[in-house]
Amino acid sequence: MTHDGGLRLHMERVLGAAPSVIFQALTEPRKLATWWGPDGFGIPSVESDLRPGGGYRIAMQPPEGDLFYLVGEFLEVEPPQRLSYTFRWEDPDPEDRETVVTLSLRDIGGTSAELVFTQGDFATERRRALHEEGWTQSLDKLEQLMSSAASP
User: In terms of DSSP H, where are the helices of the chain?
Assistant: First the structure.
């Protein structure tokens, strides 16, 4: 994770699957629900209109507490290399503001791809750190899912 300018996240992962398989996991509602969110969270529903200008809504259920929703609009949809969208909570914390998430995939050998993730700019360091924790746990789950998808 690096800071480059404002309050932003930047993460990179090498995933054990082809970019097309990873892109499906990033965009197909049923697959997204299997890895999305911090540890212990459930994803009861994902609504998605996957096209530039289309929207999405993800229901998130924490281990304790009330269901809440993440919503946004797709800005770029370029399978299997790039996905970008706005990210905002339906009932935001006073310290939240809409951010932009960008995910880029680069083939590094047929059965592996580099994922580059950025999100920002956050209103406060506290909110950036909270997102860093959630995305780290989510990407750990995505990495495990992609490793098992590549296994015969």
Answer: 19-27, 29-35, 125-150
Cβ neighbours of 140 (radius 10 Å): 13
Q: How far apart are the first and last CA of the chain?
A: 32
Any bridge partners for residue 69, and if so which? 59
CA distance 9 to 131: 8
C-alpha distances (whole Å) from 109 to each of 6, 13, 16, 45 are 33, 14, 10, 34
Tell me: the pLDDT tens digits for 86-111? 999 998 888 999 999 999 999 998 78
pTM: 0.92
List pLDDT tens digits, range 117-132.
999 999 999 999 999 9
